[in-house]
Amino acid sequence: MTQIRRTAARRAPVTTQAHARLEVETGGQGFTDITREAAAFLTEIGAASGLLVLFCRHTSASLTIQENADPDVRRDLLTALDRLAPRGLGWVHDLEGPDDMPAHVRTLLTDSGLSIPVVDGRMALGTWQGVYLMEHRDAPHRREVVLLFTGQVRELT
After folding, report:
1. Which H/E stretch holds residue 148?
2. What is the pTM of this model?
3. What is the CATH number of the domain that holds 102?
4. Who's near 20: CB < 8 A, 6+ residues apart?
5. DSSP string, 80-117
6. Is residue 42 part of a domain?
7. Do the domain assignments include residue 3?
8. Strand partners for 65
9. Is 40 among the domain residues?
10. Residues 113 and 53: beta-carbon distance below 8 Å
């Protein structure tokens, strides 16, 4: 029989909002781990508990939470996206080249935003999870990710 357990709910007033922007230089199609930068933002603002929202300001790049232990997982995910949204399929929208429309489809399949609970000042990610910006274009790009924290902060001493 399946069992589900939940910890007791704790109520806390929202005491602050903080935001920042990450500029991410990509090397072309692939994953860029931004977990450390998001964690550093939480440390800098003194986050205690709340919600971290990340938003990618582009339509041909996206955000995802994925395994951070075995790089083969990310390689296989790129292969899957190549099969789901291949170049050269006869896309109508190709103003910026053959990777243009496939990049938009890949963003549609993944996501432009993430919401991550923050507990005790840290993202409540699983053991093998990392936060990644996914570049869907072949050429390097400069991408921007907005970080927004809403919640409680530690008291300053």
Report:
1. strand 142-153
2. 0.89
3. 2.60.120.460
4. 41, 146, 147
5. HHHHHS-TTS--S--TT-TTHHHHHHHHHHS-SEEEEE
6. yes
7. no
8. 131
9. yes
10. yes
Structural domain count, the chain: 1
CB 22 within 8 A of CB 147: yes
With vertex at residue 72, the alpha carbon angle to CA 27 and CA 104, rounded to the nearest 5 degrees, is 50
Where b means 16+ CB within 10 Å and e means fewer, 124-135 reads ebeeebbbbbbb
- 10-40 pLDDT, tens per residue? 777 778 999 999 999 999 999 999 999 999 9
Q: In which domain, by residue range, is 142 found? A: 16-86+97-153
**Rounded distance, CA 88 to CA 94, Å?**
10
For residue 79, name the pLDDT band (cuts at 50, 70, 90).
very high
Residue 11 covered by a domain: no
